[in-house]
Specification:
Blueprint (H helix, E strand, L loop, with lengths): L8 H6 L1 H12 L2 H17 L8 H30 L8 H19 L5 H10 L1
Helix pairs in contact: 2-3, 2-4, 3-4
Length: 127
């Protein structure tokens, strides 16, 4: 672990509000911003190069890169979902009425059949 004091637990927590605000501004989602902030802490604890002379700038850069990476990933995911989704639509009232009229006609036709035809149709399609 690096000996730079700003990368101690207290030093990291001192940057939390600014990093959270940056991630929220880039993502527009509080929960996604918290995820990015957690990933920033992991990167910081893994340690920057010992030559890091501006820890605050390094942390802001990591947060910005992680937020933009997440936003690009979300954009690609949404594009894939739009590509493979099928359009769902609700039948109009006229279509519902027409469908019920057709069903009524079929039921009347089946009930109008002589035996054994009526029994065969009922057993095949309704039981």
């Amino acid at each position: 672990m690096t000996s730079i004091p700003e990368f101690s637990a207290d030093g990291l927590l001192g940057h939390a509000n600014g990093l959270r605000a940056l991630a929220r501004a880039l993502l527009g989602d509080e929960h996604a911003a918290e995820d990015v902030l957690q990933d920033t802490w992991v990167a910081a604890l893994a340690g920057p190069a010992d030559t890091c002379d501006r820890p605050a700038g390094w942390l802001h850069g990591v947060t910005r890169k992680l937020a933009l990476k997440r936003r690009r990933g979300e954009g690609r995911r949404k594009a894939r979902e739009r590509l493979v989704s099928r359009g769902e639509r609700i039948a109009s009232v006229d279509e519902e009425v027409a469908g019920r009229e057709v069903l009524r006609s079929v039921v009347d036709a089946v009930l109008g059949l002589d035996e054994p035809y009526q029994s065969v149709v009922v057993m095949r399609y309704y039981q």
